[in-house]
Write a structure and sequence with these properties.
By secondary structure, the chain is an alpha+beta fold. It has three domains: 136 residues, Gyrase A, domain 2, CATH 3.30.1360.120; 86 residues, Aminomethyltransferase beta-barrel domains (Alpha-Beta Plaits), CATH 3.30.70; 74 residues, Aminomethyltransferase beta-barrel domains (Elongation Factor Tu (Ef-tu), domain 3). Helix content is 19%, strand content 34%. The protein is built from eight helices and 19 strands. It has a six-stranded mixed β-sheet, sandwiched between helices. Strand 10 and strand 11 form a beta hairpin. Helix 2 packs across helix 7.
Protein backbone atom coordinates (compact mmCIF):
# COMPACT_ATOMS: atom_id res chain seq x y z
CA UNK A 1 0.00 0.00 0.00
CA UNK A 2 1.24 3.47 -0.76
CA UNK A 3 -1.51 5.73 0.55
CA UNK A 4 -1.21 8.49 3.11
CA UNK A 5 -0.61 7.25 6.63
CA UNK A 6 -1.83 8.69 9.91
CA UNK A 7 0.56 9.05 12.89
CA UNK A 8 -1.04 5.88 14.31
CA UNK A 9 -0.14 3.68 11.33
CA UNK A 10 2.80 2.07 13.22
CA UNK A 11 0.52 0.70 15.99
CA UNK A 12 -2.05 -1.02 13.75
CA UNK A 13 -0.02 -4.19 13.51
CA UNK A 14 0.34 -4.40 17.31
CA UNK A 15 -3.40 -5.24 17.31
CA UNK A 16 -3.46 -7.20 14.00
CA UNK A 17 -5.08 -4.36 12.04
CA UNK A 18 -5.95 -5.12 8.41
CA UNK A 19 -5.57 -1.97 6.31
CA UNK A 20 -7.38 -0.89 3.15
CA UNK A 21 -7.20 2.13 0.88
CA UNK A 22 -9.83 4.60 2.10
CA UNK A 23 -9.90 7.77 0.01
CA UNK A 24 -6.16 7.63 -0.51
CA UNK A 25 -5.36 6.71 3.11
CA UNK A 26 -4.06 3.40 4.46
CA UNK A 27 -6.54 2.80 7.27
CA UNK A 28 -7.55 -0.23 9.32
CA UNK A 29 -10.82 -1.80 8.15
CA UNK A 30 -10.81 -4.17 11.13
CA UNK A 31 -8.74 -5.58 13.98
CA UNK A 32 -10.53 -8.51 15.67
CA UNK A 33 -13.47 -8.48 13.23
CA UNK A 34 -16.25 -6.05 12.29
CA UNK A 35 -19.08 -7.73 14.23
CA UNK A 36 -16.92 -8.16 17.31
CA UNK A 37 -15.80 -4.51 17.23
CA UNK A 38 -19.35 -3.30 16.60
CA UNK A 39 -20.56 -5.23 19.66
CA UNK A 40 -17.71 -3.87 21.82
CA UNK A 41 -18.70 -0.26 21.02
CA UNK A 42 -22.38 -0.95 21.73
CA UNK A 43 -21.64 -2.63 25.09
CA UNK A 44 -18.19 -1.53 26.35
CA UNK A 45 -15.77 0.80 24.54
CA UNK A 46 -13.88 0.97 21.26
CA UNK A 47 -10.94 3.04 20.08
CA UNK A 48 -10.85 4.51 16.56
CA UNK A 49 -8.07 6.26 14.66
CA UNK A 50 -9.79 9.17 12.93
CA UNK A 51 -6.65 11.20 12.30
CA UNK A 52 -7.43 11.25 8.57
CA UNK A 53 -10.23 13.77 9.21
CA UNK A 54 -9.43 17.34 8.17
CA UNK A 55 -9.21 20.47 10.31
CA UNK A 56 -9.60 23.96 8.87
CA UNK A 57 -9.32 27.13 10.95
CA UNK A 58 -11.39 30.21 10.15
CA UNK A 59 -10.17 33.32 11.97
CA UNK A 60 -10.70 37.06 11.85
CA UNK A 61 -13.24 39.78 12.56
CA UNK A 62 -15.43 38.52 9.69
CA UNK A 63 -15.28 34.82 10.60
CA UNK A 64 -18.85 34.53 11.90
CA UNK A 65 -20.47 36.49 9.05
CA UNK A 66 -18.45 34.49 6.51
CA UNK A 67 -19.47 31.13 7.95
CA UNK A 68 -23.11 32.24 8.08
CA UNK A 69 -22.82 32.72 4.32
CA UNK A 70 -21.22 29.34 3.49
CA UNK A 71 -22.78 27.04 6.12
CA UNK A 72 -26.41 25.91 6.36
CA UNK A 73 -26.79 25.95 10.16
CA UNK A 74 -27.05 29.12 12.27
CA UNK A 75 -23.46 29.70 13.38
CA UNK A 76 -24.51 32.51 15.75
CA UNK A 77 -26.29 30.00 18.02
CA UNK A 78 -23.44 27.96 19.60
CA UNK A 79 -21.61 29.67 22.48
CA UNK A 80 -17.83 29.43 22.75
CA UNK A 81 -16.97 25.86 23.82
CA UNK A 82 -19.83 24.37 21.79
CA UNK A 83 -19.78 22.29 18.61
CA UNK A 84 -22.37 22.33 15.82
CA UNK A 85 -23.20 19.91 13.02
CA UNK A 86 -23.71 21.68 9.70
CA UNK A 87 -23.26 21.43 5.93
CA UNK A 88 -21.81 23.44 3.06
CA UNK A 89 -23.84 23.51 -0.13
CA UNK A 90 -23.63 24.55 -3.76
CA UNK A 91 -26.14 27.01 -5.23
CA UNK A 92 -28.27 24.10 -6.50
CA UNK A 93 -28.60 22.63 -2.97
CA UNK A 94 -26.13 19.79 -3.56
CA UNK A 95 -23.70 19.16 -0.70
CA UNK A 96 -20.05 20.26 -0.71
CA UNK A 97 -19.54 18.51 2.66
CA UNK A 98 -21.07 17.89 6.06
CA UNK A 99 -18.92 18.92 8.99
CA UNK A 100 -18.70 19.79 12.68
CA UNK A 101 -17.65 23.28 13.75
CA UNK A 102 -15.93 24.04 17.06
CA UNK A 103 -16.54 27.60 18.22
CA UNK A 104 -13.61 28.93 20.24
CA UNK A 105 -14.94 32.48 19.82
CA UNK A 106 -16.82 34.42 17.13
CA UNK A 107 -13.45 35.20 15.57
CA UNK A 108 -11.83 31.78 15.88
CA UNK A 109 -13.69 28.71 14.64
CA UNK A 110 -12.34 25.24 13.85
CA UNK A 111 -14.07 23.17 11.15
CA UNK A 112 -13.65 19.39 11.17
CA UNK A 113 -14.26 18.06 7.66
CA UNK A 114 -14.34 14.71 5.89
CA UNK A 115 -10.96 13.28 4.90
CA UNK A 116 -11.83 12.88 1.22
CA UNK A 117 -12.99 16.51 1.02
CA UNK A 118 -10.14 18.38 2.74
CA UNK A 119 -8.67 20.01 -0.39
CA UNK A 120 -12.05 20.69 -1.99
CA UNK A 121 -13.46 22.26 1.20
CA UNK A 122 -10.36 24.34 1.77
CA UNK A 123 -10.49 25.71 -1.78
CA UNK A 124 -14.24 26.36 -1.54
CA UNK A 125 -13.79 28.32 1.70
CA UNK A 126 -10.85 30.28 0.34
CA UNK A 127 -12.77 31.20 -2.82
CA UNK A 128 -15.61 32.69 -0.81
CA UNK A 129 -13.63 34.33 2.02
CA UNK A 130 -13.33 38.10 2.26
CA UNK A 131 -10.33 40.16 3.39
CA UNK A 132 -11.45 40.08 7.04
CA UNK A 133 -11.12 36.27 7.21
CA UNK A 134 -8.13 33.95 7.31
CA UNK A 135 -8.73 30.34 6.26
CA UNK A 136 -5.96 27.86 7.15
CA UNK A 137 -5.74 24.12 6.56
CA UNK A 138 -4.29 22.86 9.85
CA UNK A 139 -5.00 19.15 9.25
CA UNK A 140 -1.37 18.10 9.70
CA UNK A 141 -1.26 19.73 13.15
CA UNK A 142 -3.75 17.25 14.59
CA UNK A 143 -4.16 13.53 15.14
CA UNK A 144 -7.56 12.37 16.33
CA UNK A 145 -8.60 9.37 18.42
CA UNK A 146 -12.25 8.56 19.13
CA UNK A 147 -13.18 6.62 22.30
CA UNK A 148 -16.74 5.38 21.83
CA UNK A 149 -19.12 3.29 23.89
CA UNK A 150 -20.98 3.23 27.22
CA UNK A 151 -17.72 2.83 29.19
CA UNK A 152 -15.85 5.58 27.30
CA UNK A 153 -16.26 8.14 30.10
CA UNK A 154 -15.28 5.70 32.88
CA UNK A 155 -12.03 4.81 31.10
CA UNK A 156 -11.17 8.33 29.92
CA UNK A 157 -11.91 9.92 33.30
CA UNK A 158 -9.03 8.03 34.93
CA UNK A 159 -6.58 9.79 32.58
CA UNK A 160 -7.53 13.40 33.37
CA UNK A 161 -8.29 15.62 36.39
CA UNK A 162 -11.07 17.60 34.69
CA UNK A 163 -14.62 16.38 35.23
CA UNK A 164 -15.57 14.83 31.89
CA UNK A 165 -19.27 14.74 32.83
CA UNK A 166 -19.20 18.54 32.47
CA UNK A 167 -18.35 18.18 28.78
CA UNK A 168 -21.91 17.46 27.68
CA UNK A 169 -23.05 16.42 24.19
CA UNK A 170 -21.64 18.67 21.45
CA UNK A 171 -19.33 20.59 23.81
CA UNK A 172 -15.51 20.70 23.89
CA UNK A 173 -12.57 21.88 25.99
CA UNK A 174 -9.07 22.81 24.93
CA UNK A 175 -5.66 22.57 26.59
CA UNK A 176 -6.84 19.69 28.74
CA UNK A 177 -4.14 17.59 30.39
CA UNK A 178 -4.91 13.99 29.46
CA UNK A 179 -2.42 11.21 30.24
CA UNK A 180 0.13 14.06 30.60
CA UNK A 181 -0.50 15.35 27.06
CA UNK A 182 -2.28 18.57 26.11
CA UNK A 183 -5.41 17.83 24.05
CA UNK A 184 -8.68 19.23 22.75
CA UNK A 185 -11.51 16.91 23.83
CA UNK A 186 -15.10 16.90 22.53
CA UNK A 187 -18.20 14.75 22.86
CA UNK A 188 -19.92 14.53 19.47
CA UNK A 189 -19.78 10.83 18.52
CA UNK A 190 -20.38 9.14 15.18
CA UNK A 191 -21.46 5.73 16.40
CA UNK A 192 -24.80 6.29 18.10
CA UNK A 193 -23.01 5.78 21.45
CA UNK A 194 -21.55 8.09 24.06
CA UNK A 195 -17.87 8.94 23.78
CA UNK A 196 -15.14 11.46 23.13
CA UNK A 197 -12.90 12.75 20.36
CA UNK A 198 -9.34 13.44 21.42
CA UNK A 199 -7.40 15.89 19.23
CA UNK A 200 -3.70 15.80 19.97
CA UNK A 201 -0.34 16.63 18.44
CA UNK A 202 0.59 13.98 15.85
CA UNK A 203 3.69 13.04 17.88
CA UNK A 204 1.53 12.30 20.96
CA UNK A 205 -0.95 10.00 19.20
CA UNK A 206 0.87 6.66 19.60
CA UNK A 207 1.40 7.18 23.34
CA UNK A 208 -2.23 8.15 23.89
CA UNK A 209 -3.49 5.18 21.87
CA UNK A 210 -1.41 2.74 23.92
CA UNK A 211 -2.34 4.38 27.24
CA UNK A 212 -6.06 4.20 26.40
CA UNK A 213 -5.83 0.54 25.40
CA UNK A 214 -3.96 -0.28 28.62
CA UNK A 215 -6.25 1.85 30.81
CA UNK A 216 -9.40 0.24 29.40
CA UNK A 217 -8.09 -3.33 29.41
CA UNK A 218 -10.25 -4.45 32.34
CA UNK A 219 -13.36 -2.90 30.78
CA UNK A 220 -12.62 -4.77 27.54
CA UNK A 221 -11.73 -1.80 25.33
CA UNK A 222 -10.65 -2.78 21.80
CA UNK A 223 -9.19 -1.02 18.78
CA UNK A 224 -11.81 -0.72 16.03
CA UNK A 225 -11.60 -0.15 12.29
CA UNK A 226 -13.58 1.58 9.55
CA UNK A 227 -15.83 -1.44 9.07
CA UNK A 228 -17.39 -1.18 12.53
CA UNK A 229 -17.41 2.61 12.33
CA UNK A 230 -19.57 2.28 9.23
CA UNK A 231 -22.04 -0.28 10.63
CA UNK A 232 -22.36 1.71 13.87
CA UNK A 233 -23.04 5.08 12.22
CA UNK A 234 -25.37 3.39 9.70
CA UNK A 235 -27.56 1.82 12.41
CA UNK A 236 -27.84 5.27 14.06
CA UNK A 237 -28.68 6.83 10.64
CA UNK A 238 -25.72 9.19 10.65
CA UNK A 239 -24.97 10.36 7.12
CA UNK A 240 -21.72 9.49 5.35
CA UNK A 241 -20.46 11.85 2.66
CA UNK A 242 -20.19 10.04 -0.67
CA UNK A 243 -23.16 7.82 0.22
CA UNK A 244 -26.06 9.65 1.91
CA UNK A 245 -24.68 13.06 0.91
CA UNK A 246 -22.95 14.24 -2.27
CA UNK A 247 -22.86 17.09 -4.75
CA UNK A 248 -26.05 15.57 -6.21
CA UNK A 249 -27.85 15.01 -2.87
CA UNK A 250 -29.10 17.89 -0.74
CA UNK A 251 -29.09 17.88 3.09
CA UNK A 252 -32.91 17.94 3.03
CA UNK A 253 -33.07 14.81 0.85
CA UNK A 254 -30.51 13.11 3.10
CA UNK A 255 -32.59 13.75 6.21
CA UNK A 256 -30.32 16.30 7.89
CA UNK A 257 -32.75 19.20 7.46
CA UNK A 258 -32.30 19.97 11.18
CA UNK A 259 -28.86 21.36 10.26
CA UNK A 260 -30.34 23.66 7.58
CA UNK A 261 -31.73 26.88 9.08
CA UNK A 262 -33.51 28.57 6.18
CA UNK A 263 -34.99 31.10 8.60
CA UNK A 264 -31.62 32.59 9.59
CA UNK A 265 -31.11 36.11 8.28
CA UNK A 266 -27.91 35.37 6.41
CA UNK A 267 -28.36 34.53 2.75
CA UNK A 268 -26.28 31.36 2.62
CA UNK A 269 -25.20 29.53 -0.55
CA UNK A 270 -27.99 27.17 -1.67
CA UNK A 271 -30.61 28.78 0.61
CA UNK A 272 -33.21 29.35 -2.11
CA UNK A 273 -33.33 25.71 -3.24
CA UNK A 274 -33.13 24.31 0.29
CA UNK A 275 -35.89 26.62 1.53
CA UNK A 276 -38.12 25.42 -1.30
CA UNK A 277 -37.33 21.77 -0.50
CA UNK A 278 -38.15 22.37 3.17
CA UNK A 279 -41.46 24.03 2.36
CA UNK A 280 -42.67 21.94 -0.57
CA UNK A 281 -40.93 18.67 0.29
CA UNK A 282 -37.79 17.41 -1.44
CA UNK A 283 -38.26 15.38 -4.65
CA UNK A 284 -36.38 12.47 -3.07
CA UNK A 285 -36.22 11.16 0.48
CA UNK A 286 -33.81 8.95 2.41
CA UNK A 287 -35.78 5.99 3.79
CA UNK A 288 -34.98 2.88 5.80
CA UNK A 289 -35.46 -0.48 4.08
CA UNK A 290 -35.79 -3.88 5.68
CA UNK A 291 -35.46 -6.84 3.35
CA UNK A 292 -38.47 -9.15 3.12
CA UNK A 293 -36.75 -11.53 0.70
CA UNK A 294 -33.33 -12.98 1.52
CA UNK A 295 -30.50 -10.71 0.38
CA UNK A 296 -28.42 -7.72 1.43
CA UNK A 297 -29.13 -4.25 -0.04
CA UNK A 298 -25.62 -3.03 -0.90
CA UNK A 299 -24.69 0.61 -1.69
CA UNK A 300 -25.50 1.50 -5.30
CA UNK A 301 -28.15 -1.18 -5.83
CA UNK A 302 -31.18 0.16 -7.72
CA UNK A 303 -34.61 0.35 -6.07
CA UNK A 304 -37.82 -0.21 -8.06
CA UNK A 305 -41.57 0.05 -7.61
CA UNK A 306 -43.71 -2.02 -10.00
CA UNK A 307 -40.82 -2.32 -12.44
CA UNK A 308 -40.04 1.42 -12.47
CA UNK A 309 -36.68 2.59 -11.09
CA UNK A 310 -37.35 5.03 -8.23
CA UNK A 311 -34.00 5.32 -6.44
CA UNK A 312 -30.92 3.56 -5.10
CA UNK A 313 -29.42 2.17 -1.90
CA UNK A 314 -26.92 4.55 -0.23
CA UNK A 315 -25.78 2.17 2.56
CA UNK A 316 -26.86 -1.37 3.38
CA UNK A 317 -25.63 -4.36 5.34
CA UNK A 318 -26.67 -7.04 7.77
CA UNK A 319 -27.20 -5.01 10.94
CA UNK A 320 -25.03 -6.58 13.68
CA UNK A 321 -27.39 -5.26 16.40
CA UNK A 322 -30.69 -6.23 14.76
CA UNK A 323 -29.46 -9.32 12.88
CA UNK A 324 -31.55 -8.13 9.92
CA UNK A 325 -30.69 -7.12 6.36
CA UNK A 326 -31.39 -3.40 6.22
CA UNK A 327 -30.45 -0.40 4.14
CA UNK A 328 -30.88 3.30 3.58
CA UNK A 329 -32.16 4.27 0.15
CA UNK A 330 -32.74 7.58 -1.61
CA UNK A 331 -36.11 7.19 -3.32
CA UNK A 332 -38.79 9.22 -5.06
CA UNK A 333 -40.70 10.97 -2.23
CA UNK A 334 -44.02 9.43 -3.16
CA UNK A 335 -42.75 6.08 -1.89
CA UNK A 336 -41.49 7.26 1.51
CA UNK A 337 -44.47 6.05 3.59
CA UNK A 338 -43.76 3.37 6.20
CA UNK A 339 -44.95 -0.06 5.10
CA UNK A 340 -44.49 0.62 1.37
CA UNK A 341 -43.13 -2.49 -0.36
CA UNK A 342 -40.36 -1.82 -2.90
CA UNK A 343 -37.98 -4.04 -4.88
CA UNK A 344 -34.20 -3.97 -4.59
CA UNK A 345 -32.21 -5.24 -7.55
CA UNK A 346 -29.66 -7.58 -5.95
CA UNK A 347 -27.47 -8.74 -8.82
CA UNK A 348 -29.91 -10.46 -11.19
CA UNK A 349 -32.72 -10.86 -8.68
CA UNK A 350 -35.48 -8.45 -7.77
CA UNK A 351 -36.03 -8.75 -3.99
CA UNK A 352 -38.84 -7.31 -1.89
CA UNK A 353 -38.10 -4.79 0.88
CA UNK A 354 -40.31 -2.75 3.18
CA UNK A 355 -39.93 0.94 4.08
CA UNK A 356 -39.31 0.99 7.86
CA UNK A 357 -38.71 3.52 10.62
CA UNK A 358 -35.20 4.90 11.18
CA UNK A 359 -32.82 5.12 12.94
CA UNK A 360 -32.41 1.35 13.14
CA UNK A 361 -30.75 1.78 16.54
CA UNK A 362 -31.12 4.32 19.36
CA UNK A 363 -29.28 3.94 22.63
CA UNK A 364 -31.50 3.45 25.65
Amino acid sequence: MSGKKTPLFPVYKESNGKTIDFGGWDLPVQFSGIKDEHEVVRTKAGLFDVSHMGEIEVKGSGALAFLQKVLTNDVSKPKPGACQYTAMCYEDGGTVDDLVLYKRSNEDILLVVNASNIEKDYQWLQEHAGNDVEVTNVSNMYAQIAVQGPLAETISQRLTKIDLSEITFFKFREEVSFANKSILISRTGYTGEDGFEIYCKPEDAVDLWRVLLKEGEEEGIQPCGLGARDTLRFEAKLALYGQELSKDISPIEAGIGFAVKTDKEADFIGKKVLKQQKEDGAPRKLVGLEMIDKGIPRPGYDVYKDGEKIGFVTTGTQSPTLQKNVGLALVDSKYKELGTVLEVQVRKRSLKAEVVKTPFYKRG
